[in-house]
Design a protein that fits this description.
Elements lengths: L6 E4 L8 E4 L5 E5 L2 H7 L4 E7 L3 E5 L4 E7 L2 E6 L5 E6 L5 E5 L16 E2 L29
Parallel strand pairs: 3-10
Antiparallel strand pairs: 1-2, 2-5, 3-4, 4-9, 6-7, 7-8, 8-9
Length: 147
């Protein structure tokens, strides 16, 4: 871990946005292809930084955050004004917060590079995974967070 590490991000509101930070490099960063992440983001994949809960905090406008349970165990956090989905909490991993990397400030460090593809069995048929040498897993099973 780098001394003084700090990643910052927030919602898309032009004025008075929700802001968050995490102050330790992520436990892992991965590409997620699960239907829950892709459906909610409207994209072919989600880029997720898994950060330790005790290093993550809302720094501004926590009162604007709304919850939407996309599954019984997946609690997604959105800005109630602009609708930006910033992070989620997953019951099986109570010590971690899963941050959607695109909501980080563009000049903020993520704190790590993606090291795996997860939920490849859920990949959209049209999506072609790059030949990047990263391991591919049908679900969480081979992710350290699932251990």
């Amino acid at each position: 871990m780098s001394e003084g590490f700090r990643a910052t991000g927030g919602c898309r509101c032009n004025t008075d946005p929700v802001r968050y930070e995490y102050t330790k490099e992520p436990f892992e960063v991965h590409y997620c292809l699960c239907t829950d992440c892709t459906d909610i983001s409207g994209g072919a994949l989600a880029l997720i930084a898994v950060v330790e809960r005790d290093t993550f905090r809302i720094t501004q406008n926590e009162n604007k955050i709304k919850n939407f349970d996309t599954k019984e165990t997946a609690h997604r956090k959105f800005c109630g004004d602009c609708g930006c989905h910033m992070f989620l909490e997953v019951d099986p991993f109570p010590d971690h917060v899963l941050v959607h990397v695109p909501t980080l400030d563009r000049d903020s460090e993520v704190g790590g590079e993606p090291d795996r593809w997860v939920f490849t069995d859920s990949k959209l048929e049209l999506v072609q995974l790059p030949d990047d040498g990263l391991p591919r897993h049908p679900g969480w099973a081979n992710s350290p967070i699932a251990s």
